[in-house]
Specification:
The structure holds 3 protein chains of 3 kinds. Chain B contains 5 helices and 5 strands. Chain C is α+β, with helices and mostly antiparallel strands. Chain C has 10 helices and 14 strands. The termini of chain C are far apart. The chains are: A alpha+beta, B alpha+beta, C alpha+beta.
């Protein structure tokens, strides 16, 4: 493989250099958790019922079977939230006494191989006295609904409410009311690598190494040590190559805890590889929400006041560390989106049901709330005979900083500009003409927009406002240069496809004048990296990137001082580039490696205030920064079958300074496909008894390449002062706007039929049902 | 008779003598018995294509074949794509065009594309996309996979 | 998701295969051909055959040839064999068109035509072809051989009239007259998915009117079959969109809809109306 070329005088940041991650991955030399050998294999035995009391568990004779009875002294997972009357809920590592969702693990079988463990698991007998189950969140709120956990009244885990002062007056004064009852159906993030864990006990040190598919290795270590009552120093957590996470691998899985317990108990290595069926049924689900929102507009289409009632299905337990409150409370805080509306009243509840627990998934609540508010905008536009573009123009935030009704501070961005660029890119008037002609010929083309903000790169203060018991946010980066002049960057973030080994190397490269292939980014191993929070919430490039920049600047400063001394020049005359330190305007230069040699091996030749070695670190904890984007989808709806084809998809994205355009676009492409999947294909379906009907990839439908439109991406770059690298995050954005754009386009296509599709996914069945209902009404 | 049997698998030109049950899938045998972990398992029911390998030059889903059925066949996996240090055009193209992010689906896509392009170097673009729609990716949104395979195909045709 | 243990048999001849099958079938012994349908059900442990009789090594089953006025498809013939027309006959191009809708390329390199018939998934394209064109299905057992007509072969959801000790050795499809028109249309959620509804039609035009129409419906009911009521409407009338709409509407009311997580009855009827109409339009084009 050819190394990225050194460029004298040029910068690495901003260039689409090839990824340093790739050579191993394309050769099949990646190391994923399931690639490790283990002495023993674990198969979890899972509840066949959604709710009930366990009477008896019996394993086949001679087989090692672990149940809750063996786990005395192991604490349950119990995340905390100090806000909005959150009621803590405890999840035992193995179900203790009761089961609360189909798929909940109540026993674990240990055997010599995966196949054998599965054979034994099949023969475990359990008798469960079935109890009534509640599956739908609204049903769970009803007075006589079965309680999932006795201490949680009416199954309301959290009940948040915000009403701005003077709301009622402003609401009453705005004449035009528009309502949307939006429904976002349950999703599974479906990373192509399901979850896996491998725990190995080291007999000489007594330590356990847990290799697992986690997005948060350090917190996983702390949490498991806490739950097992073991010294945290005796646990090492390694996130190796991880095959996608999208949030699902952020939350602490009880299975990981059990693996560490077993490794210590058996003093050997044990492995668990989740299979796809398990992942679909019993990992983490997301976005099962009802969103009833209503806007009060004035005659010019200005949204004056917004009210909402949001009900989020949390599932049977509360995910660690965010708690299950994360979806409803994020919806509460961010529903107004990118629009300037200061009168806001909203209630958001997280409701327990006898279903698989909820955890964040790429965008968390933002795809659903963006869907709801963008449908509202289109509906209002229709009611007021305004162009959907124009109504957004009139409502998008335009001056910065902008403080939202819920206290979020929007830094400089390009909401309106992105809209204008997107509209120009699709040539709206030409499309409308095409649409008109197509309609006359019986074909239904439609165009849909979504304008939205993406909250990214937010540190401790923002998380603190959420009131979580554990407050993530900051990131530390440690840089060291060895005597050969090679740099190692150890980070607390935990990338799993985001290309951080490359982008962070680009940042360091610019500071210290080396090529990126002379910089190795180390992540994922808690023995080797500074404590950090992992990778999620579009944070790593902003926060780890910021810490990297700050540490690299310190390293640069030290190298410059060394060079100044050795080259007998003033530090301000030293430039670091092309692997050298050069006195500007002269040919006096010295390789950076020689600076390293000097400070390690000939320190006596340097002034005493220059400490030996080359190691710098920095911690960054920013307030957060808002990216923004406009998505436009052009679709064709087959009115006879309800089938939808996306003809064109345009993204105009502003994520501030782009470190590596190719990597940035890749994140957008992937996010948009998740959004399209959300809009049209993916849905976890439960029956009334709490069994999942979509338990294979033939029933739960992640889209193939044929369902992917060509995704055009345009970038705007508003360089923010809220991020030291001037970069904003963008990992989630693609998934946030795409569902709204696609479904708005479907509704636009079906305008002649008088339907309003406000549910996602907008499956062919739902579209046909809406069309049938509309034609029956018309008849 | 459900017990272990002795078979030999020929993978990337190397012979592996292994003992496994008849129910051992080719995917598990390649990974666990032969130690070639580049082939990945994503679903075990033949939908995602992460486990795609070449058997006598044809792309197959290794999770839907039993190891015992592959005896005597020529199996190629991602580890055998490169010739020593020289990467396969597809591998180079995937790196050039950012056709991978987490890398989990990548070996399956590489073998699928390699198998098809070696058998039909002049395959039309639409047919090529049909073939590529066999495998799932959750990270890339497919845009750059298409770019990478088209670029490699053009290069391979040119040879 | 590992299959339950099984004993593996790899006969080298049909004779050997049916002998083994006679012994193991009562003990849940199954035939393994392409495995593309059977192995996933084994991975989910919905099927736990104690014996698998692998017929991939039986050379005589690889036969793909015309014999008289039939195309003979041996049990070893893979879907991929049909990618290019296997006969110079409308049947060849019909099969080449339909095969593109079957799953995905790597599945087509292993899965077999006859395996699809024996598996009898309601959404199998080949089952629809067999039912619509009137395939002859030849089975062998230790006790001898017999021929079944497609109409009698598909009994219900994943159920055929094959006895447990019978091996489906070949299917015979009638070659079509040179002037035979055909049309196929399928609706599925994603590329390569099972059809939620599909229709296959064949007819001649004689003196400007439809002659000998066949209209088969698949994916919408427990088993594929010809819809006689729709065929009757078409016979003797000139091809026209309005006629096709009429036939489609009748077809939509003439079947027992499968209901599942993907489609309820009302939606299934909508799809049948659409796929029948479009198959007819394609045939007439």
């Amino acid at each position: 493989m050819s190394a990225p070329k050194q460029r004298a005088g040029g910068t690495w940041v901003g260039r689409s250099i090839r990824r340093l991650e790739d050579p191993a991955l394309v050769a099949g030399r990646g190391r994923f958790t399931a690639d490790l050998n283990a002495e023993r294999h674990v198969r979890f035995v899972r509840s066949p019922l959604a709710s009930g009391r366990i009477e008896k568990i019996a394993g086949p004779p001679g087989v090692m079977l672990v149940t809750a009875a063996d786990l005395a002294g192991v604490r349950p997972i119990e995340p905390m939230l100090h806000k909005f009357n959150y009621v803590p809920v405890a999840q035992s590592i193995l179900a203790e006494g009761v089961v609360c969702f189909v798929g909940e693990p109540f026993a674990a079988v240990v055997a010599a191989s995966e196949a054998e463990a599965e054979d034994f698991a099949d023969r475990v007998e359990v008798s469960i006295v079935e109890a009534p189950a509640t599956i739908d969140a609204r049903d769970a709120l009803a007075e006589r609904a079965p309680a999932v956990h006795a201490q949680v009244a009416r199954n309301v885990l959290v009940d948040g409410e915000i009403t701005t002062t003077d709301f009622e007056r402003v609401w009453a004064a705005a004449p035009m009311r528009v309502k949307i009852s939006a429904r976002s159906r349950r999703q599974n993030a479906t990373p192509l690598e399901a979850r896996a864990a491998h725990a190995a006990f080291d007999r000489s040190s007594g330590r356990v190494t847990l290799t697992c598919t986690t997005q948060m290795p350090h917190l996983t270590r702390t949490a498991i040590a806490d739950l097992l009552g073991m010294p945290e120093a005796d646990l090492r957590v390694v996130a190796p190559d991880v095959g996608g996470g999208f949030g699902q691998k952020m939350s602490l899985a009880p299975e990981y805890v059990l693996l560490v317990w077993l490794a210590r108990r058996l003093r050997t290595s044990v492995a668990w590889t989740e299979d796809r069926r398990e992942n679909l049924i019993a990992s983490y689900h997301s976005r099962d929400q009802y969103l009833d929102i209503e806007g009060a507009f004035d005659a010019d289409g200005k949204l004056r006041a917004l009210r909402g009632d949001i009900v989020a299905n949390i599932g049977a337990y509360s995910c660690f560390p965010t708690t299950g409150a994360v979806e409803p409370l994020m919806a509460l805080a961010e529903l107004p989106g990118p629009y300037d509306v200061q009168a806001y009243s909203c209630r958001a509840r997280g409701v327990l049901t006898h279903t698989c627990p909820m955890a964040p998934f790429r965008g968390v609540s933002r795809p659903a709330i963006t869907f709801a508010i963008e449908r509202l905008m289109d509906k209002a536009a229709q009611a007021l005979a305004l162009d959907p573009v124009e109504i957004r123009r009139r409502n998008l935030v335009r001056t910065f900083p902008y403080t939202s009704a819920t206290g979020l501070v929007f830094d400089e961005a390009s909401y309106r500009e992105a809209l204008e660029v997107a509209v120009a890119a699709v040539d709206m008037p030409a499309f409308r003409e095409r649409q008109r002609k197509a309609r006359a010929a019986g074909r239904h083309l439609g165009i849909g927009l979504a304008t939205f903000s993406e909250r990214t790169g937010y540190g401790t203060p923002a998380f603190a406002a959420r009131g979580m018991g554990i407050t993530p946010g900051w990131e530390t980066v440690e840089l060291s240069m060895d005597p050969s002049g090679f740099v190692e960057a150890r980070i607390g973030a935990s990338p799993h496809g985001q290309g951080l080994r490359t982008t962070l190397a680009q940042i360091v490269a610019d500071q210290v004048g080396l090529a990126p292939d002379r910089i190795r980014v180390v992540h994922g191993d808690t023995d080797r990296t500074p404590y950090g929070w992992g990778t999620f919430a579009s944070r790593s490039l902003v926060i780890s990137g910021g810490a990297t920049l700050l540490a690299a600047q310190k390293l640069r400063a030290k190298l410059t001082r060394i060079a100044a001394h050795l080259l007998e020049a003033a530090p301000e005359d030293i430039a670091l580039e092309g692997g050298e330190a050069r006195v500007a305007g002269t040919d006096r230069a010295m390789p950076v490696a020689e600076l390293a040699r000097a400070v390690y091996h000939r320190r006596h030749e340097l002034p005493p205030e220059i400490a030996p070695g080359l190691a710098e670190s920095a911690t960054y904890d920013p307030p957060g920064t808002f990216s923004n984007a406009c998505h436009v989808a052009i679709v064709e709806v087959d009115a006879e079958t309800g089938g939808v084809t996306i003809e064109r998809f345009v993204v105009v994205e502003d994520a501030g300074r782009i470190i590596n355009p190719m990597i940035a676009n890749g994140q957008i492409h992937g996010g948009v496909m998740h959004g399209i999947a959300n809009a049209l294909y993916e849905e976890i379906v439960y029956d009334d008894a709490g069994n999942i009907l979509t338990a294979s990839l033939a029933d739960y439908l992640p889209p193939t390449l044929r369902e992917a439109p060509a995704i055009e991406v345009h970038h705007l770059e508003t360089l923010t002062s809220a991020s030291v690298t001037q970069a904003k995050g963008l990992g989630e954005g693609g998934g946030i706007g795409a569902p709204a754009a696609v479904i708005n386009a479907i509704n636009d296509a079906l305008t002649p039929f008088g339907v309003s599709i406000d549910e996602m996914p907008a499956t062919p069945q739902r579209i046909r049902a809406a069309l049938r209902a509309a034609s029956e009404k018309a008849a | 008779m459900t017990g272990k049997i002795d078979i030999t698998l020929h993978i990337n030109g190397e012979s592996f003598a292994i003992r496994c049950e008849p129910r051992r899938t080719l995917a598990d045998a390649i990974r666990d018995d032969c130690g070639q972990t580049g082939t990945h398992i994503g679903c075990e029911h033949g939908v995602c294509g992460a486990c795609t390998v070449l058997v006598d030059g044809e792309p197959v889903r290794a999770c839907l074949m039993f190891a015992v059925q592959a005896e005597g066949r020529a199996i190629r996996t991602v580890e055998g794509l490169a010739k020593g240090d020289e990467l396969h055009p597809l591998q180079r193209a995937f790196m050039e065009h950012h056709g991978l992010q987490c890398g989990f689906c990548t070996p399956g896509f590489l073998m699928l594309a390699a198998g098809v392009l070696e058998r039909e170097p002049d395959i039309g673009d639409d047919d090529l996309l049909d073939v590529l729609s066999s495998n799932l990716c959750r990270c890339t949104g497919y845009q750059n996979i298409i770019k990478a395979v088209r670029a490699a195909a053009a290069g391979m045709r040119g040879r | 998701m590992k299959p339950a243990p099984f004993a593996y048999h790899a006969p080298k001849s049909v004779e050997e295969a049916v002998t083994i099958l006679a012994q193991v079938a009562p003990d849940d012994g199954r035939v393994l051909a392409g495995g593309q349908s059977l192995v996933p059900t084994m991975a989910f442990r919905l099927a736990r055959p104690a014996h698998l009789v692998d017929i991939n090594g039986i050379a005589e089953l690889a036969r793909l040839a015309t014999a008289g006025d039939h195309l003979v498809i041996g049990a070893g013939v893979r879907h991929a064999a049909f990618h290019r027309p296997v006969v110079e006959n409308p049947l060849g191009s019909l099969l080449a068109f339909v095969v593109r809708h079957i799953a995905h390329y790597p599945i087509r390199t292993r899965g077999t035509f006859c395996g699809s018939l024996a598996h009898a998934d309601p959404a199998s394209e080949w089952c629809l072809v067999a039912a619509t064109l009137g395939a002859e299905i030849v089975a062998r057992s230790r006790d001898g051989g017999r021929s079944l007509q497609a109409g009698d072969f598909f009994q219900g959801l994943m159920t055929t009239s094959l006895a447990e000790n019978e091996l489906l050795v070949e299917a015979r499809l009638p070659l079509l007259p040179a002037d035979m028109r055909w049309g196929f249309y399928e609706f599925s959620r994603r590329a390569g998915d099972y059809a939620l509804a599909m229709a296959l039609t064949t007819f001649h035009l004689a003196d400007g009117v439809i002659d000998e129409p066949r209209l088969g419906l698949g994916g919408a009911e427990a088993a594929p079959r010809r819809i006689a009521a729709a065929e009757q409407v078409l016979a003797g009338r000139p091809p026209a969109s309005a006629l096709f709409r009429e036939a489609a509407a009748i077809a939509a009311e003439s079947f027992e809809p499968l209901e599942d997580v993907q489609a309820d009855a009302a939606f299934r009827r909508d799809l049948v109306r659409a796929v029948v109409f479009r198959a007819l339009e394609r045939a007439a084009a």
